Amino acid sequence: MKNQKYPTKETLEKWTKDPKNWIWGIFYYNKEDKRIFPPKKNEEMGSTINFANPKSILALLIALAFFGMVIFLF
């Protein structure tokens, strides 16, 4: 049996649909999922941030700093 480096599409979908991975139903938190921006429960609504991934927190802070700088410059 091969050791898979990446989870299967079924596993990714299961993680997204699992209510245990959602804090208060809006914050995605799954340590097994290495994606920074996984899809929301309803994929048509876009992506969310995986708060269990430290890189995603960094990406959020950079985005907030960028938008804060834009607002400050106006």
TrEMBL record:
* Keywords, alphabetical: Membrane, Transmembrane, Transmembrane helix
Q: Which domain of life is it from?
A: Bacteria
| Keyword Transmembrane helix included in the entry's annotation | yes
The regions listed as transmembrane in this protein's record are: 57-73
Official protein name in the record:
Membrane protein
Q: Which organism is it from?
A: Flavobacterium granuli
